[in-house]
Design goal:
heterodimer; A: about 575 residues; alpha/beta; six-stranded antiparallel beta sheet; disordered N terminus; B: about 575 residues; five-stranded antiparallel beta sheet; 20 strands; about 30% helix; binds siroheme; binds flavin-adenine dinucleotide; binds flavin mononucleotide; binds iron/sulfur cluster
């Protein structure tokens, strides 16, 4: 990794010898060390009086243009891109944030300073809206990036085999296309905040210095205090969630249902959270006390209150990753389990390979931080005021002879009651909004809990008296036991708010029927609506459903527009670029 | 009929239904609800099905923000109850795929599917049509499924009444094409031929109408419980004609003595060739004189008691070319089935299988569904559904009998039943029946087990005693014409009726009011004891309780509520 001697400018609020000392340390530090340090300082500052007056920024002579390009599905990358923009402008850059969705490699190649934040989805796939950019970047005809300085922040989750795949590929591709990598790529796991923030600050300085060295004399005023994401300090965050009282806790699934879905209403009063339909709430869950005990037992810990508390509230005691398996093997002097052993297994299974072998420190170090889960908000403030409604399906399954329970969904549905609290923060989703035009037609495909945001949409359109026609496609297993919010939906049909409703229940007849079949059956109208400028929304299961619906849409476009596959794909892409094919899938 | 009184709501619905179409087709396209429009739910009966909701789930539904758990009960029309093995397999498939995975044999020789979702109605109807089966007029204000004695061991005679049942059913069937249009998607006849219902009339009958045909000495069809009954008169091995009985019916309403079960009157005799004409005459008299204002007073039995029997018979005769002759003598011996094997002169075997309350599904010890499936796969003989909710596998060639016997044994379908159980019936009641006041089908088996212990103590384990239970006074299992009748009054509470004739010629009488499970056993046990002790030779339980003065005999329906014991302890 290349180093630059000068990091802190003489204008830094330190004595000269302090500046030298710091430069010595920081200059020699690895990316991780710097990341840690910056996170530490940011944290330290947040911890101390955040009202500490920061020294005024001396306006730089000439601002260095910087493009921060992000590829996101669920918004993390975008959030980081915006943090980077704030930090950058404070450092004297002239930053602008770009979504890969509306950017081309050709445009990117024209950029001098490029910061990329890219998430990985599916099984190593690019976020849906970044697909075009990614594909043409990887394609043969991709432009050269000779004049571009760049660095890549990759977002991912070690629980997935192709960890940070997309970030890595973009990084390598840009280098191959002649781009100048000015900082090593950082690959962030689910606990990305601190390292990402550190990497951003440090990379920006490097970039600033490079840009400077490249003949541009802007003085960079460094302001550790104000860098970082404290702009929303008053807003609840995943680090500081809001304890929202549960005011409604109702099981919607019938007693004979094969699923277990709840309507959960929380009060946001006093939280400062103002959401829009389409946004999600992050929920910081508590682990299953029974599993905590099991983990402690197996790990051979008496489990004092403090440790138990940490395992319940702070650490992920279920998800199992390959690095963890290796560490565990090393600590316990056991075999590293083969990669395929991990499939369907969790931390508890790993501990059982060598029970009673871990010290408290080893155990807590082995576990990853407990991450929040997201739930689409199923209401509109215009209809419910200071409340937010969630539609939560309990995740339960059996694997390797063990009953497994989803951490958050079961915490919310089974271990929570009205009167209790959920720890929440807002996870805006600006890319999943009702059309700006109130009279635009809307098609909503939301099977299962995918119905959630559309309940919010419909409440919103009812409250605002939007005239656009609304078409809902809902699906589940059994009509009799799984028709979520049926009575409300009936009212909307009666009132005309829903001008069309289609349902697909998979287990009511010998042949399986899903929303994609309902779409196909309705293909003529579907095509007419799309031609009529309708916006099409899809929410719910990312793996099977979203894929099958996408395929069904292509078939409908091919069939109704009597055109071949490529033409159909082109038409759907056009609709997507037009912002009329939006997905919120998980 | 009295023109002052307004027509009942149903009459208006029928009137504006455009020959039973209503808005059913439209309702089928509404996916936001599992229900159909109220008026349409009256019309769907004519198409053979009822809208119901699972009453076990009512309490929870509101909380779950879901409507009632609506589903449909679909009833087939199978005159004489005969289907082929192939048709049986098809019926089973439909029950598994479109219903609640059970087949329910009814007291009228047919099948009911339960728990059919609105979205599955059309596939179900089409599935039946594909096997040339249908549900037309299985319910509604029409002539219902025509039933006939199921006695294949009397080959020629059975064939004759079965054919007659089909002919009557066909002759009295509604002429509207509504069923074919709605369910099979058949086009409305071009130019929309003005439809007519020459026999039933544009508003159909005032109420349901039921016809049964019996071959003495067997009265399995309970011929005296039918609106119209035909009793075969056999000479030299063939049926020469029929005694005609009219005005039978069971239904009544608690606390409304003007409603009552009634035993049909034998009004004369007709030649075999005139049966259809007689049926049409009686039906049209009911059509023209039946009460269309008050549905609780609309059955033929009330029409007859309002007109007077003689006036009624005259009206019928006026519509006949050959007037009814004087009745011929006849004797009945039983109303029940004879579980087990029977063989006829040509060596074909017939086996009557006991199906408790007609509910066919696999139990751990009795795999009825699978057993019948395997037998049907042999593709021999015919399946005959009896009026006692049982099923007969008929016409089994000698070669196949061992195979059938093996399958019966393998699936526990041949185990012997006590005299009480094999002569017992319960109606459906909860959870599907919207009119049920108390449990019936789900409760009777346990009650019988308790009563069996009592009977055992007095050595009556194999005594044939008819016992019938219903969850409300409508009388779907014909409880008022059995030796022991148990009729629901409210959750866990029943009225106990005694003294019906074993052969179904005399109604019973109220013996105890509002008794629970223990109360029923406590009331019957001493009577069983006395019966074992003091019965005359071959005396039936139903006759014994009258002779020994426990209840008075009911003579006509009109005295059903009279002569009650002073001490109706409850
Ligand atoms: C399935 C069956 C009982 C059984 O366990 O087998 C049955 C079941 C019902 N009967 Fe019945 N009746 C059944 C034979 C009878 C009989 C016996 C007979 O026909 O030999 C009677 C007494 C004879 C008579 O008609 O008087 C009978 C008298 C009634 C009545 C009272 C009619 C009356 O005029 O008093 C009703 C209620 C009504 O019609 O208003 C009724 C109504 C019903 C309904 C449809 C309830 C309703 O109207 O909502 C029941 C459906 C319950 C369910 O969930 O399946 N059912 N019903 C029988 C089907 C026969 C068939 O295949 O067509
Ligand atoms: C933007 C967004 C919006 C969302 N909106 C909603 C919503 O409105 N309603 C809702 O209910 N959920 C929603 N989710 C999903 C939700 O966030 C959680 O992922 C879900 O509740 C599961 O979390 P958990 O903690 O209960 O389960 P976890 O403890 O996270 O367990 C889930 C994991 O278990 C494993 N697993 C699950 N099933 C099986 C199986 N059958 N076999 C083997 N392994 C299995 C998988 O690895 C899976 O990732 C949303 C997700 C996102 C990203
Ligand atoms: C359905 C799904 C699939 C994912 N697949 C991968 C993957 O294959 N590799 C990976 O490293 N991360 C994967 N992730 C984790 C995301 O990349 C991670 O949550 C990231 O923070 C999302 O960033 P975004 O909000 O900007 O889309 C997946 C997440 C989800 C919900
Ligand atoms: S007797 Fe009453 S409870 Fe039983 S099925 Fe008939 S209507 Fe229902």
């Amino acid at each position: 990794m290349m180093k630059t001697a000068v990091l802190l400018p003489s204008s830094a609020p330190f004595a000269a010898d302090q500046i030298d000392a710091l430069n010595g340390v920081i200059g020699a530090a690895s990316a991780e060390q710097r990341a840690w340090l910056s996170g530490f300082l940011a944290g330290l500052q947040a911890a101390n009086d955040s009202r500490a007056a920061a020294p005024p920024a001396a306006p730089p002579a000439k601002r260095v243009p910087l493009t921060i390009l992000f590829g996101t599905e669920s918004g993390n990358a975008e959030a980081l891109a915006n943090q980077a923009r704030k930090a950058a402008s404070k450092l004297g850059f002239a930053p602008k944030v770009q979504d890969m969705a509306d950017f081309t490699p050709a445009q990117a190649a024209g950029v001098e300073n490029l910061l990329i934040v890219a998430a990985t989805w599916g099984e190593g796939d690019p976020p849906q809206r970044a697909q075009d950019f990614y594909e043409s970047l990887m394609a043969n005809g991709a432009p050269r990036f000779e004049k571009t300085r760049y660095a890549v922040l990759a977002l991912g989750d070690r629980a997935y085999a192709q960890f940070c795949e997309i970030g890595r590929r973009i990084d390598e591709r840009l280098a191959a296309l002649g781009g100048a990598r000015i900082a090593d790529r950082i690959e962030c796991d689910v606990d990305y905040e601190t390292p990402a923030q550190g990497w951003i600050d440090q990379t920006l300085q490097r970039l600033g210095a490079e840009a400077g060295a490249a003949g541009d004399t802007s003085v960079i005023h460094v302001d550790f205090v104000r860098s970082g994401s404290e702009a929303e300090a008053d807003q609840p965050t995943r680090a500081r969630p809001f304890a929202a009282e549960i005011i409604e806790h109702v099981r919607l699934s019938g007693s004979r249902s094969t699923s277990d879905t709840y309507h959960v209403g929380v009060s946001l009063e006093g939280s400062g959270i103002t959401y829009e339909p389409g946004d999600a709430l992050g929920v910081v869950p508590r682990n299953d006390p029974a599993l905590v005990d099991a983990i402690l037992d197996t790990a051979g810990q008496g489990g004092d209150a403090a440790l138990r508390e940490t395992l319940t509230q702070r650490l992920d005691i279920t998800t199992l990753t390959a690095p963890q398996a290796e560490t565990f093997a090393r600590l316990t002097g056991t075999e590293v389990p083969p990669a395929d052993w991990l499939a369907g297994r969790q931390v508890i299974d790993l501990l059982e390979r060598a029970p009673g072998k871990l010290s408290t420190e080893q155990l807590t170090a082995l576990l990853r931080p407990l991450t929040p889960r997201y739930y689409s908000i199923a209401s509109s403030r215009k209809a419910v005021g200071e409340e937010a409604h969630l539609l939560v399906g309990a995740v339960r399954y059996r694997s390797h002879d063990r009953d497994r329970s989803g951490v958050a969904s079961v915490d919310i549905t089974e271990r929570s009651r009205a009167g209790g609290h959920l720890h929440v923060f807002l996870r805006p989703n600006p890319h999943f909004r009702l059309p700006a035009e109130p009279d635009r037609k809307v098609i909503m495909v939301g099977p299962g809990t995918g119905l959630a945001p559309f309940r919010g949409f419909l409440q919103e359109r009812e409250a605002t008296g939007a005239q656009g026609a609304n078409w809902l496609l809902f699906g589940h297993r059994n009509y009799t036991h799984d028709f979520l919010y049926q009575l409300e939906i009936q009212d909307w049909v009666k009132s005309g708010l829903l001008s069309r409703l289609d349902v697909a229940f998979s287990r009511d007849q010998p042949e399986k029927r899903y929303v994609q079949h309902a779409l196909w059956d309705a293909r003529r109208d579907l095509y007419a609506w799309l031609k009529d400028g309708a916006s099409l929304y899809v929410c719910g299961d990312a793996n099977a459903m979203a894929r099958d619906v996408h395929a069904a849409l292509l078939r409908v476009l091919a069939d109704q527009g009597n055109q071949d596959e490529d033409a159909a794909k082109a038409e759907l892409d056009a609709i997507r670029r037009d912002g009329r094919y939006l997905r919120d899938v998980y | 009929m009295d023109m002052e009184r307004p027509l009942s709501a149903n009459e208006r619905i029928k009137e504006k239904s455009r020959f039973l179409r209503g808005t059913i087709a439209d309702g089928l396209t509404r996916v936001d609800t599992g229900a159909l429009a109220d008026d349409d739910t009256q019309l769907t009966k004519f198409h053979g099905f009822y809208m119901q909701d699972d009453r076990d789930l009512r309490a929870e539904r509101g909380r779950q923000r879901m409507e009632k758990a609506f589903s449909y009960m679909v009833r087939m029309r199978v005159p004489a109850g005969i289907v082929s093995p192939q048709q049986w397999l098809g019926i089973e498939k439909l029950a598994l795929e479109r219903g609640n995975r059970t087949i329910r044999l009814t007291t009228r020789e047919t099948v009911q599917f339960h728990g059919v979702l609105k979205s599955n109605l059309t596939p179900l109807m089409r599935g039946l049509a594909a096997m040339s089966l249908d549900t037309i007029a299985a319910c509604g204000d029409v002539n219902r499924n025509v039933i006939a004695t199921t006695d294949p061991s009397r080959g020629g005679l059975h064939e004759a009444v079965a054919t007659l049942a089909r002919d009557i059913s066909g002759h009295l069937l509604p002429r509207t094409r509504a069923w074919h249009e709605i369910w099979l998607g058949q086009e409305r006849i071009a130019g929309g031929v003005i439809e007519e219902e020459p026999i039933l009339g544009r508003t159909y009958l005032p109420r349901k109408f039921k016809i049964g045909i019996a071959i003495p000495p067997r009265n399995d069809v309970d011929v005296f419980a039918q609106d119209l009954g035909f009793i075969a008169v056999v000479e030299r091995g063939r049926i020469v004609g029929y005694n005609v009985a009219a005005g039978g019916g069971m239904g009544m309403t608690h606390g409304e003595p003007e409603t009552y079960p009634r035993n049909a009157d034998v009004i004369g005799y007709c030649d075999a060739d005139d049966v259809i004409a007689v049926a049409e005459a009686v039906v049209t008299v009911q059509r023209d004189f039946g009460d269309r204002s008050n549905r609780k007073h609309a059955r033929l039995k009330y029409t007859i008691d309002t007109l007077g029997l003689d006036r009624f018979v005259t009206l019928v005769n006026d519509r006949l070319t050959h007037r009814l002759g004087p009745p011929r003598p006849f004797t009945f011996e039983s109303t029940g089935d004879r579980p087990g094997w029977a063989e006829d002169e040509d060596g074909r075997s017939h086996v009557t299988l006991f199906i408790e309350n007609g509910r066919i599904h696999d139990l751990p010890h009795r795999k009825m569904m699978t057993g019948l499936h395997r037998i049907a796969e042999l593709d021999v003989g015919r399946f005959i559904m009896t009026p006692n909710q049982n099923i007969i596998i008929a016409d089994i060639p000698p070669a196949s009998r061992p195979m059938v016997e093996a399958l019966l044994a393998e699936h526990g379908l041949d185990d012997a039943q006590s005299g009480l159980r094999r002569n017992a019936m319960a109606c459906v009641a909860l959870p599907t029946c919207g009119l049920a006041l108390a449990e019936s089908e789900r409760y009777l088996p346990a009650l019988i087990t308790r009563l069996e212990q009592e009977l055992d103590r007095f050595g009556l384990a194999q005594e044939d005693i008819t016992l019938r239970m219903t969850g409300c006074p409508n009388g779907c299992a014909r409880p008022y014409i059995s030796e022991i009748g148990i009729v629901g009054r409210g959750p866990g509470l029943y009225n106990l009726y005694l003294g019906g004739a074993h052969e179904g010629t005399r109604l019973n009488k109220l013996y105890r009011r509002d008794v629970d499970d223990d109360g029923i056993v406590a009331a019957l046990s001493p009577l069983f004891a006395a019966f074992a002790e003091a019965r005359k030779r071959n005396e039936r339980f139903g006759d014994f309780v009258i002779r020994t003065g426990h209840v008075a005999a009911t003579v006509t329906g009109l005295d059903f509520h009279e002569n009650l014991a002073s001490d109706l302890r409850s």
